[in-house]
Amino acid sequence: MSGRRVEDWLWVTGRGLYCEPGGFYVDPTAAVDRAVITHGHADHARPGHQAVLATAETLAIMGVRYGDSAWVTKQSLGYGETLRVGEVAVRLMPAGHVLGSAQAVLEWRGSRVVVSGDYKRRRDPTCPLFEPVPCDVFITEATFGLPVFRHPPADQEVAKVLSSIAAFPERPHLIGAYALGKAQRVLALLREAGYERPIYLHGALMRLTDLYRDFGLAFGELRPVAGVGREELRGAIILAPPSALSDRWSRRLAEPVTAMASGWMRVRQRARQRGVELPLVISDHADWDELTTTLAEVGAPEVWVTHGNEEALVHQASAAGFRARALSLIGRGESEQEEPVDAPLEPPLESPA
Question: Is the CB of residue 31 less than 8 Å from the CB of residue 174?
Answer without folding.
Answer: no
